[in-house]
Design a protein that fits this description.
Blueprint (H helix, E strand, L loop, with lengths): L28 E9 L2 E9 L6 E5 L11 H4 L1 H6 L1 E6 L18 H19 L4 E6 L1 H12 L4 E7 L5 H18 L3 H8 L9 H13 L9 H10 L6 H24 L2 H4 L7 E6 L7 H10 L5 E6 L6 H4 L1 H13 L9 E4 L1
Parallel strand pairs: 3-4, 3-5, 5-6, 6-7, 7-8
Antiparallel strand pairs: 1-2, 2-4, 8-9
Helix pairs in contact: 3-4, 5-6
Length: 349
């Protein structure tokens, strides 16, 4: 694979896979496409060492946490096992424009967009089905899409699966307050003590909790999520410098449109049965989305096959903190390989 390329200035591109002599690797896929989805132009990055491998559609977190700019940095092993499609969702990343009507920024519309992207990929590669993977916010869209059109998917994989966001937020706030006291941080203790939610009265309360939770390692065990993301974005050729500004605008726009609906959803009552194999993956130290809620949900969810994997040395951002272990777990579940677990991840019943 090509070495990282410093961010483009005016033109977006994704590098081809090269052989040692510099020629393009036969049978590989490396494309960045603007596609009309749900009436708006949206961007899809598709990469894989071998186009005959299964297709994996990766739904990013957020709302608004687009990941086309960071995909190459963290998905190298996934790209060996799959043709990986990363889609900047409506209103996020490259797919953000000022002209997107706020009334189209709904969970239902993004689920429909997910299904349209799926059909576009299946038609492009002439496949009957693909594997659907959601991370955090993306697990809401993924689970609802898999429930709505199971015939399109071989399997559903939820990483940091969202179940009851309000309960998860309540536990996060309680944990953050305890951490602030344990660390004798008076500023954090005062700020978190003033929060009345969840549900939060303002976006500022939400931001306060997330700020301190991030400082305490709830999202990423080593450093912050911004450290994991910003360097990769700066060295991305898939985003121009102007797109980095677009990313920030899209993230704020998406959060303002979707955070209330995302916080109010209860997946355990919305989806009680899936007709395809269903697997959950969680970072052992995740506090943003409480893994115990997802484990209980998986226990009662009806599905033809179910599985759970821990990424041992990771928190909420397991796909970025431990990308190789994450890729191994995804590949094992997607292909149902009876392989032994590598040391950095483990299967639990």
């Amino acid at each position: 694979m090509d070495a990282p390329v410093r961010g483009a200035v005016f033109r977006r591109s994704t590098p081809a896979y090269r052989l040692r002599d510099g020629e393009n690797r036969p049978g590989s896929v490396a494309s960045l496409d603007e596609v009309r989805i749900g009436g708006t132009m949206q961007w899809i990055l598709t990469r894989g060492v071998d186009e005959q491998q299964p297709i994996l559609l990766f739904l990013h977190g957020g709302p608004g946490g687009a990941q086309i700019a960071v995909a190459r940095r963290y998905q190298r092993e996934l790209e060996r096992a799959f043709v990986v499609a990363n889609w900047d969702q409506r209103g996020a990343g490259l797919s953000y424009t000022k002209g997107i009507p706020r009334e189209t920024m709904t969970i239902d519309q993004l689920v429909e967009d997910t299904l349209e992207v799926t059909r576009w990929l299946l038609q492009r590669f002439d496949r009957p089905r693909l594997t659907l993977l959601g991370h955090s916010w993306g697990t809401i869209l993924g689970l609802l899409a898999a429930n709505r059109a199971p015939e399109l998917f071989d399997a559903y994989i939820g990483a940091a699966q969202v179940v009851e966001p309000q309960e998860s937020e309540r536990r996060l706030l309680e944990w953050s307050r305890e951490e602030a006291k344990r660390r004798h941080l008076s500023k954090a203790t005062r700020a978190l003590g003033a929060v009345t939610g969840p549900p939060y009265r303002t976006l500022g309360e939400f931001s306060t909790v997330r700020h301190w939770a991030d400082e305490f390692g709830a999202r990423a065990r080593r450093g912050t999520d911004r450290r994991l993301v910003l360097d990769a974005m700066f060295h991305s050729s898939e985003y121009t410098f102007g797109d980095l500004v677009r990313y920030g605008k899209g993230e704020r726009f998406s959060v303002s449109c979707l955070i209330e609906a995302a916080g109010a959803i209860d997946m355990s009552s919305r989806v009680t049965r899936l007709r395809i194999p269903t697997y959950f993956i969680s970072g052992r130290s995740d506090r943003i989305v409480d893994p115990s809620l997802a484990r209980e949900y998986l226990r009662v969810l009806e599905a033809p096959k179910k599985g759970w994997a821990w990424i041992e040395d990771a928190a909420h951002l397991a796909p970025f903190e431990e990308p190789d272990a994450f890729a191994a777990a995804v590949a094992a579940f997607s292909r149902q390989d009876p392989v032994a677990s590598p040391p950095s991840w483990s299967v639990a019943g």
